[in-house]
Design a protein that fits this description.
The chain is mainly α. It has 8 helices and no strands.
């Protein structure tokens, strides 16, 4: 359990240290991790070092922190014996919450951040919070949700808000148009990034999410189904459908 609660902080420290070392080791304008890509995505024309730093903060600190917190969360579930307590229904909620963050993450990785993408980030965060409340309300009466797991949940809840906030700042004009303040800057087109992120980075993020979050949650669901009598599974399915 100590490993579970320390994993998000350790990943955050490693990511932040690597980013700071990268900046301090170069005497020229700060650059991001050198990875093969069709074009250099940073900085965009007319963009200053602050925006570049904010993107690096998202790429090398916020996203790794979220992945680490998800891994720690799955470890907490396993330690609490979730498969024999709250069972597969809670595991389905965990997969749902992963999708609620994973889908906007994919959009931000591969699509130009226009008003629809920002709207997706904001709506997904709100939906994720509501599902999280549903999940905890269901879990606390059926298994031991330890203070360590609750602390891990705080990371999983605040990191998507952190990411959405930084994205809104980076694309402020689109955010203002989205909320109706500056309609002159409206861009509701959905298109691929003009300056794509490094391909290895994007694929690495997708693979890490699948390996360190997706697979543990799916395995958790399988364990729960195997430990649950068939009648109870049918009862859960009927209640969920109703």
């Amino acid at each position: 359990m100590r490993l579970s609660t320390g994993l998000p902080l350790a990943a955050a420290a490693i990511g932040l240290t690597a980013f700071l070392n990268k900046r301090s080791s170069s005497t020229e304008r700060p650059r991001l991790l050198e990875l093969p890509s069709p074009t250099r995505p940073f900085p965009a024309e007319g963009e200053d070092a602050t925006a570049e730093t904010a993107r690096a903060f998202l790429m090398y600190f916020v996203i790794p922190l979220w992945i680490a917190a998800g891994t720690a969360d799955a470890a907490c579930h396993r330690a609490s014996g979730i498969e024999t307590t709250s069972g597969p229904k809670e595991s389905l909620l965990h997969i749902l919450m992963l999708a609620e963050v994973g889908i906007p993450l994919l959009a931000a990785l591969f699509l130009e951040v226009t008003s629809p993408v920002l709207a997706l980030l904001i709506a997904s965060f709100i939906l994720h919070e509501l599902t999280s409340l549903w999940d905890v309300s269901y879990a606390v009466s059926r298994r031991n949700v330890t203070p360590i797991e609750q602390h891990v949940h705080s990371f999983l809840e605040i990191v998507p808000l952190m990411a959405a906030s930084v994205m809104a700042i980076l694309h402020w004009k689109q955010f203002l148009s989205l909320i109706g303040i500056d309609r002159d800057e409206q861009d509701f087109e959905i298109r691929r990034k003009k300056r794509p992120l490094p391909l290895l980075y994007s694929l690495g993020v997708v693979a890490s999410v699948m390996l360190f979050e997706g697979l543990p949650y799916v395995h958790e669901l399988i364990r729960g189904i195997r430990a649950t009598p068939p009648r109870r599974i049918n009862h859960i399915a009927n209640r969920s459908g109703g």
